[in-house]
């Protein structure tokens, strides 16, 4: 866990800190040279508290480090995924059809008119907006891809952007897995001008009534030269299998070639998982309301945003090729994203997102 990404993963996944708190905590731990689980587990509380952003963060970090350290010594899995005895331990994706899995991953949409959308202002930070932006973009530039692929590719773009931002403001201490060459040999696809390494899910039939129900499952050929998938090339997009974006940092930790099947489940694969991406977007678009209303409000707010983005991309897709639409998307995102302070002060900060700004970018009629 020598780099920033691994430290942040530990703080969010094991110490259960929110992303903004994890970033602040990681900064203090790096300054104190406490960057491995072993170091954290051996550190006394007073030392850790002095290096931490808050006392609460220090307690959570120390408890998680000791727990993971003990699991390592016993040879147990490190990740803490408690499963209730009342719930099935079977992966739900294994007992659901691909069509059901994909239907559950669809993002909500809005019933409001575009005029009504212009008056809506949401409060969020930049990462969820970028995730929603990229997900909706892929739906238009690669319409053959299922919702899980749109979310996976979008999560990769969001993660790569966060890694680049962290390096620019001095939060990254080591080279990323991408720069170290992990994922070489895997196919590439461009999303918002970023190169994303992908796995092809040959044989994955996700539509409710596919025309061809007997497709051969073709494994990835490790000796085949990596291909770059173009949005404009009919031979690349027509019949293209569902794609999953590779999580290169996870691939680096596993240190083994990825294997993908036609199953609806992606458990155990070093990829960006669609359900995690969808949940992350939903949690970003609520406000201070009673707890009972929050879940419905998240769906509603995200639906408004998705409809505004759909309107933007649909207006230009009639005159722009998918590749040209992809090239413009990043500049559009930069124009509408919430305004926050530059540098570390703005990392994870929230700001206003005016849907009118998105709608104003539509192609003039």
Secondary-structure blueprint:
Layout: H1 4-14, H2 19-31, H3 37-42, H4 45-51, H5 55-74, H6 92-95, H7 98-105, H8 114-117, E1 121-125, H9 126-141, H10 147-168, E2 187-191, E3 194-201, E4 228-229, H11 234-237, E5 242-245, H12 248-254, H13 274-284, H14 291-317, H15 322-336, E6 350-354, H16 355-359
Parallel strand pairs: 2-4
Antiparallel strand pairs: 1-6, 2-3, 3-5
Helix pairs in contact: 1-2, 4-5, 9-10, 9-13, 9-14, 9-15, 10-13, 13-14
Radius of gyration: 21 Å
Largest sheet: 4 strands, mixed
Nearest-integer average pLDDT: 79
| Strand adjacency order, main sheet | 4-2-3-5
Helix percentage range: 40-55%
**Poorly predicted runs of 5 or more residues:** 76-95, 210-225
SSE topology string: HHHHHHHHEHHEEEHEHHHHEH
Task: Give me the secondary-structure category.
Answer: alpha+beta
The tally of beta strands, per DSSP, is 6
The total count of helices amounts to: 16
In one word, what is the shape? globular
Distance between the termini: 53 Å
Strand proportion: 5-15%
